[in-house]
Amino acid sequence: MPEGTTVEVRPAKGRPMLTWVGKRPLRQVTAFPAQHVESYGQAGALSAAPELWADWPAAYPRGGLLFHGDNKEVLAHLLANGFRGKVRLVYIDPPFDSGADYVRRVTLRGAQGTARFEGEGYTLGEQIQYTDIWANDNYLQFMYERLLLLRELLHDEAGIVGLQCDWRKAHHLRCLFDETFGPDNFRGEVLVRAGTKNVQSQFDEVSALATGHNSILLYSKSSDHRLPKLLERSDRFEPGKWDTFWRGTDRPTMRYELLGVMPSSGQWRWERSRAERAVQAYQAYLREYADSLTLDEYYLRTLRTTGVDLDFVRKDENGTVQYYVPPRDYRVLSNVWFDLAYRGAETGYPTEKHEQPVARLVQWLTNPGDIVLDCFIGSGTTAAVAQKLGRRWIGCDINKGAIQTTCKRLQAIIAAQAKALEAAAQPGLPLLEQEGAEAEPRPAQLSFTVYRVNDYDLQIQHNEAVNLACEHIGIARTRIDPFFEGTLGRSLVKIVPFTHPLTVADLEEIKRELSSRPEEERDVTVVCLGKELAAGAWLEEWNRLRRRTGLPNQIAVIELRTDPRYGRFFVHQPARARVTVERREGRVYVRIDDFLSPTIIERLKEQGGVLEPQIDDWRAMVDSVMIDPAHDGQVFNVALADVPERKTDLVAGEYELDAPPGETTVAVKITDMLGEEVVVTARV
Ligand SMILES: C[S@@+](CC[C@H](N)C(=O)[O-])C[C@H]1O[C@@H](n2cnc3c(N)ncnc32)[C@H](O)[C@@H]1O
Asked: What distance in Å separates the CA atoms of residue 677 and residue 559, rounded to the nearest whole number?
């Protein structure tokens, strides 16, 4: 494992404090380096406004950043690498502890008929994208740690986080926020629409009251942070006007001398500091802008460019103190956003949210060029919105399917933006000057880079292997035991990672665990692929002693590689491809001759029973093809991407690109419909 850096985390000190079994503070985390995996687009493209990127750590290319890994590690990595205090908006939509396995429907590509089973279109069943069945206490600890790390990444004055959740966890998450961010930093709760669910399923005694909303809890990093008004343009324009600054009620603290005047009776309308700021703002207007802009124009321009809703106070010719009632060509929105859609349908990712609520948040709470972060990125909704609205973005997900989905989505958006920019660019005119004040902001970047933190692939493979093994052997999973994965009959089950044979160290760990549970009477079954000789001797001795002294906790072993009862355990056969690469007259030609995914075939067989699946065209199994014509052996730089938008379309299979000068390594990455990747390289 690479050596890590220690990152300090400020302790939570807000009140009240929620407590749970196993609550631990998070004082520091270890940050590991990230491995650069893939790049899309031309890195640094659109650094036309370099000042936008001035705060960007030099170690990263200027562009979107997408991390594959557990967000605890990714956030620690970002903190250790120059992003502390730089993020304006965090939007997250974490798993809800909903007790559900989220699945993505996977089908083969091609028109109905490309691949068939006796007249049936193939589906590959459902692929589990992630599981969020967690014991309550684990969930709280999980979220507590993420919130503490996110707070460190937020901008000290202007940082804000929006967390989307539903009735199952909203009350706990508010408490966690109060503790980690402080109750003074609560900035409101936005209600967005959600699929209607019946609360009764969870609480049987409650009447069948369906819920149709999610909450987005908003907390700022600083308690001085005032959110701008949330405005929506309307067709009616009402000009600004001056009104008296006096109010009838009588609070002594609101009576003070302003512009040499005391309120005649009652009190001033605003607190002293706000009124004084407003006096200064009006004087600044008179000094610097009165010659060129009306007060209405000045007010609206500031509001649109910076989101700041300026107040003005003056004394009129009769000596009356007046305040400015601003012009209106907008409606002020409330926290109920039921006018927006909720379910996204761009990607087929199981929990994809609609872009509309995220876009409203981003427009309301950030300016073009600000950094927006989502460390539960899923299908990439937040990144897609940020990319479209000219913000910089950072995304992260633990699930490879999510990373692949996000890559595909962002690639398509960036390609469309690049095309539109090209079309709009007239010779001789710099792009920026062609944009009207109301135009969509120019994209902050036209590229993004994928990193992996801590080789997460291995971990995911382990989880998948564990799931498969449990299914194969008939192990009942226990979700609340942090050590044992499940039970088989009356015995506890420990699954040893399939990356190594069972060793004495693994057995010693089980021994330690058992000694911490003196009342545990059950036997243990260890599942592994095979075992080391020394482990066999250790086990014999352990079991002999137990039998002789009548102690519980005998240990049995299932060796999947050799155990006749479980002989047909799934051995993963990697997908294979035959690819021809040629170089002719300054061009590189790539042809995929064949592709085979034994896993897909296996899945189809399971579905079809005795029928042999017939796939006439290998392209039905392929989701995308990417080519890097100058591969350096480490980072995949995507120069050509073939990702058909519609499921009924197939990849082309034949490609032509400019050849780099001199001999080069061409790498071709083929991703199948289950997300498995095959990379073929050739020197030409
Ligand atoms: C509710 S989904 C987010 C959906 C997203 N808002 C969208 O519109 O597509 C939650 C995501 O969090 C990811 N996730 C769960 N645990 C994680 C962890 N520890 N680190 C990073 N991502 C995680 C899941 O893989 C899943 O994609």
From this structure: 29
